[in-house]
Amino acid sequence: MALVNPIHSLSFKLIRAVMLIGFVVGLMISALQIYLDYGQQKKLMHEDMQNLSTVVRTPATALLFSLDQATAHELLRGVLKHPGVTSCKLLLSEGEVFAEQNMALIAPQQRQLSDMLFSQTMLQRWDLAWQFSDHKETLGQLEITTDTYYYGKAFLERAWVSLASTMLFALVLTAVFLGLFYLMVTQPLVSVIQSIKQVDIDAPEKTRLVEPAGHE
Question: What is the DSSP letter of 129?
Fold first, then answer.
């Protein structure tokens, strides 16, 4: 009897099909989770800077009104302590820089993927207006530049974990399915085949084939 190539066997084809389906389903679930998390991370980045500007705008407006440049630099140094901020400025109404603080971007050699997803930096400006007794006058602007790698790195770490855990789940699910297939189909077939091999060709009526439990 010619041996069947294992690659062409039914069991191998089943394993291959189940693993392929498991990986595809896992990838689809991971892709959906990562896409939703990506949107949430971009939203978080904007919200963080909005919250930061809310805290800074009132003292920044007062400093522009009093033209206190030294204290303005101190205020911006405090803003720069936020790990997502790479630059902050106070601009006069004419566009002239009144005070400025900067720092280098994080991990310039390791951020290519993050920059592709979130861009390298995000620039936002907020008007600073002083309320006089009879009118409101815009004194200048608060400008904050966000280093997106702070948010991109956190997103990518979660994405890798999500991808790995989903793939692991798909592998476990595949193993469980194959185990059930073996117990319910392969093992009973093997017992039947073994009993057929034991049939006496000269007196087949004397041999009783094995009937696997649950397959009578």
Answer: E
